[in-house]
Amino acid sequence: MSGISDQRRATIHDVARCAGVSAATVSKVLRGVSSVRAENARRVRDAVDRLGYRMDPLASGLRNEQRRIIGAVVPDLKSPFFGALVTGLESAAEAAGYTMIVASSRESETREADLVARMSDWRVAGTILAPVRSESGLGAQRMRALDMHAVLVDRASANDRFDTVAADNYAASCGVADLLVGDGHRHVLLHGATRISKAVRTRLEGFTARATALDPRVRIDTLLSDDAVDVQRLAISAYFDTPKADARATAVFSLSQHSTLLVLAELRRRAIRVPDEVALVGFDDAEWMQTTWPSITAVAQPVDAIAERAVHVLLARIEGTTGGYPVQHLEPCVLHARQSGGSADEPSRHVGGG
Amino acid sequence: MSGISDQRRATIHDVARCAGVSAATVSKVLRGVSSVRAENARRVRDAVDRLGYRMDPLASGLRNEQRRIIGAVVPDLKSPFFGALVTGLESAAEAAGYTMIVASSRESETREADLVARMSDWRVAGTILAPVRSESGLGAQRMRALDMHAVLVDRASANDRFDTVAADNYAASCGVADLLVGDGHRHVLLHGATRISKAVRTRLEGFTARATALDPRVRIDTLLSDDAVDVQRLAISAYFDTPKADARATAVFSLSQHSTLLVLAELRRRAIRVPDEVALVGFDDAEWMQTTWPSITAVAQPVDAIAERAVHVLLARIEGTTGGYPVQHLEPCVLHARQSGGSADEPSRHVGGG
DNA sequence: GCGAGACGATAAATCGGTTTACAGCGGAAG
DNA sequence: CTTCCGCTGTAAACCGATTTATCGTCTCGC
User: Fold this and answer.
1) Considering chain A, what is the average pLDDT of its residues?
2) CB distance B104–A122 less than 8 Å?
3) CA of B48 to C1' of C25 (A)
4) Rounded to the nearest 5°, which phi and psi values hold at A99?
5) Mutate which: B11, B78, B100, B119, vs A, most A CBs within 10 A
6) Nearest nucleotide from residue A35 CA, by C1' atom
7) For the whole model, what pTM was predicted?
8) Which of residues 42-81 of B touch A (CB under 8 A)?
């Protein structure tokens, strides 16, 4: 409050006095507990309106062991993926009457562990953690030690202590294999430009397994690194430098958004026609991929579904309605077939799920 | 807490008992107040370590009028700009010993006003609002009514009640005019694809004023709309359809990131060479703009500077070290001259500031 | 008419800290 | 020797809600 207008906020006692009842009665009315005479309830509501009373959510939770707060820790708020995730989490939490506290670990595991501890300081009812590395990283360890309610999201697979929610990377990559191999490609380049997280590894495995199953003769090259952009660019360039056309892939499956961008730029610079000479399918969709020309065929992660599922699973744990062992949830991705993938006119379709 | 391990968290009273002093003394030690004998301070710190005590930030603030919390309300967490902004705000707030509570208004003004009120419920020390529309929108009105400490960022210009912090859109656009007109362009298309916010209008005005000042004969076309993508695409296409080459612009200044993408895609589809036939400069930089080919000349907004400034200005108000009228802060942008702008070999340079 | 039970309301305890008012103590000044 | 002051430390009040224990009242059944 900025000094000038010096009227204190109304407290529950002010409301009680104004309505001629006790604070306990006001509390009951406000939280919808029965056992209040209709007449008194009305007077309380009148007083609330007249005084413009609003409950202090902090004081409200003070006496309870847990507060109606859900913590969220994500590695990076700049990325549209986590931005969308947080937005979804916020909606779902709000719908359930919880406030969200968001913090970014900025891809640092020690910071992640700190933030988890800070969430515990706030006596959050539960925490949703998108780990920097994996389900067994520092943050998850800390949560285990602090015996917190939590759900691991995105960069996490099955865990023996916490529920997990993630995109079905494996199935989605199988879907990409179906598309490319089904389209006649027998030589594919898998390109990964980010740190090799569990998610990226799973994508690689899914594609390889399915492609090999479809046709054992399929040839798969891989180009993985998390070097600087220039180095990676050179690597891609070198790959496509090969004189014999049959020595290089006819399709690229890029395993992350960043990777898609890099490959695309390099193909353009070399004036390789997409998809005629080389088809391109990317993991992780982005708005610009519909807008470029050619538009980019990509796997869209079900970020809203992940967010909603994560909150629901967490709330179930908090309320104790689920018991027993933790569950691994996989949400189906959607493959948006656009121009760069080759075979056009194919509708978007769901791939995988669990 | 998940039930099994049933040891309550240590409270300040536990620490006091363990150290053989009173809770008040522990409180003093913890908050670095002097007037505690060195011997006692040591014993308190020992007890804190032994018990693993951590303060409850909620209970801590309960007695004070304000709590060490800063609220942030942004229109959209999915956008990298606001994601980066929030990350910066979080860092700065944390460095000052505050916790941040972030909420997304999802481009809705009524929701914005709701969130502001909710921040006030939390007794935040101050709020940083990136308004959906402008400095006179519903959120700012509510903050005024609630007499809150606040700073408006990004989509806001001078306000008679709150300090504001934003990128220096005007000066940056002047810089773009310098670049393009200086490069010989005498016919420029200004393209805006998003809702016409105050920021976009300012960019337009800055460019027009400077370009006209440099050479009164400069011709400026404008294409502004917030229609659906397809409609906009058609509009751009139509613009470049003109048969006479001298009837169309030789350079495009796109006023938002989305707009840059749209224009770029359309130029590509029509196989118009960038920058040879048409130069392109965009407002708002993105990672992909360095990676595409040609790379995109763009104005980078000083998001970290904005965040840091916003927090510092807010803290100054909270602590009452600034008085008098609110101040409008403009942070200088950086123009990254890359390939699409034409004249290469020019280093990035700061444009504007205040 | 009386005890039991249901119902509504409230005073008081509680949560975990901070702040205030005051007390004890030792040294310096008068 | 007394007084006064500054320095430490503590008990108690306080913040704004929830929850508990208690109490009065009314009704019902016997």
Assistant:
1) 91
2) no
3) 28
4) -100, 145
5) B78
6) C8
7) 0.91
8) 54-59, 61-62, 65-67, 76-80
Domain A67-167+303-332's class? Answer: alpha beta
A13 CA, C11 C1': separation in Å? 13
A residues 225-264 lying closer than 8 A (beta carbon) to B: 229, 258, 261-262, 264
Q: B79 and A84 in contact by Cβ < 8 A?
A: no
Closest-CA distance, A95 to chain B, in angstroms, reads: 14
**Is A169-301+334-351 in the same CATH topology as A67-167+303-332?**
yes
What confidence score (pLDDT) does residue B345 get? Answer: 54
Interface membership of B321 toward A (CB under 8 Å): no
Q: Where are the domains of chain B?
A: 12-55, 67-167+303-332, 169-301+334-351
Q: Which two tokens stand for residue B335?
A: 């123009």
CATH topology of domain A169-301+334-351: Rossmann fold (3.40.50)
Q: What is the pLDDT of residues A127-155, one digit of tens each?
A: 999 999 888 999 999 999 999 999 999 98
Confidence (pLDDT) at A137 = 92
pLDDT in tens, A217-238: 999 999 998 888 888 888 998 9
Question: What value does the mean pLDDT take over residues B149-171?
Answer: 93
Long-range contacts of A221-226 (CB under 8 A, 24+ apart): A221/A187, A221/A188, A221/A189, A221/A190, A221/A249, A222/A189, A222/A190, A222/A191, A222/A192, A223/A189, A223/A190, A223/A191, A223/A192, A224/A190, A224/A191, A224/A192, A224/A196, A225/A192, A225/A193, A226/A193, A226/A194, A226/A195, A226/A196
Any idea which fold A12-55 has? 434 Repressor (Amino-terminal Domain) (1.10.260)
Could you tell me whether strands B219-224 and B187-192 are parallel, antiparallel, or unpaired per DSSP bridges?
parallel
Question: Exposed, middle or buried by CB within 10 Å (0-12, 13-18, 19+), for A78?
Answer: buried
Q: Show residues, CB within 7 A, near nucleic chain C.
A: A 20-25, 28, 34-37, 39-40, 62-63; B 8-9, 11-13, 23-24, 26-28, 30-31, 53, 55-56, 59-60, 62-64
